[in-house]
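Students often ask what a holo structure prediction actually looks like on paper. The answer is less mysterious than it sounds. You provide the chain, you provide the ligand, and the output is a string of discrete structure tokens encoding the 3D arrangement of the protein together with flavin-adenine dinucleotide.
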Amino acid sequence: AKKARRSQKILIIGAGFIGLHLAQIFSQAKKKVHVIELKDQVLPGLIPSGLALWVKDLFEARGVRITLGVRLETLREKEGRLSNGDRVGVDLAIAAIGIRTNWEVVQGTSIAVGEGIVVNDRMETSRSGIYACGDVAEYRDFFTGESRLNPNLVSAAEQGRTVAAALLGKSDRHPGLISINTFRCFGCELVSLGRIEADVGDRLLEEGDVERKFYKRMIFRDGRLKGLSFFNIPVDSGLYYKLVRERVSLEGKEERLFREPFLLGKAVAQRASKA
Ligand SMILES: Cc1cc2nc3c(=O)[nH]c(=O)nc-3n(C[C@H](O)[C@H](O)[C@H](O)COP(=O)(O)OP(=O)(O)OC[C@H]3O[C@@H](n4cnc5c(N)ncnc54)[C@H](O)[C@@H]3O)c2cc1C
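The corresponding structure tokens follow.
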């Protein structure tokens, strides 16, 4: 902590949620902040690439330097060398490059592991009677069926409920992992849920105004919401999560929902839960 307070040039490796949170806090503490990111956008895989440009601008306008598409090759003394050949001054380097599952607890057993501990729709591992859930669990994606992790609080709580139901002999099944992220930076609020990019055959509604600092994108398939990305649109993401998860039919209401997401989302979700 003392070193962080004394340091002036902060290099943050990774422009995910944690890296950008750190960048915001250090820049507000008047440090010289440089964020480097391996991928070609900030918050990769978390928000659409067009919106990522806005977020990048937001940080750069506050003096944070962001370099995309590079990795740190070496770090010696007070100098870092990047893969694009640049040399950067560094007093303190912080790696914010994501999580890796610690599944040591099942190492050496017959329990199947991939990126995490593989589970079925009751959160049961490949060994009957042994369950895993939360950050450590690898399960199928709600939309694509691909096996993956989903390290967030909403998912952890939902998986916990699934295990409890399974242990109590109930028939509840987990429908698949849905990403949900909220992020606040420099007074702006970002929400992303479900699919970020539209697939062939999806209906994409999108609107944004960089001056007025708002952006919204909704993706529908057969009248059902598949995903949304909002920037400075105040909605209850939990309600929208429910619309996606329960595959609520919004046929004919897509455009109204898109125009008035805060008014309609609640009404539709309430009706769906009564049905
Ligand atoms: C910095 C940070 C910010 C985050 N922000 C968000 C956010 O804004 N929104 C969001 O949705 N998610 C966020 N997450 C992710 C979220 O915290 C996790 O997805 C969620 O907590 C996972 O729940 P879990 O029960 O699997 O694990 P944890 O919440 O990590 O719970 C596991 C618990 O088990 C304890 N434990 C571990 N080993 C043992 C042992 N051998 N014996 C006893 N106890 C043990 C640990 O101490 C811990 O308390 C964030 C994560 C981090 C690291």
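The chain has seven helices and 15 strands.
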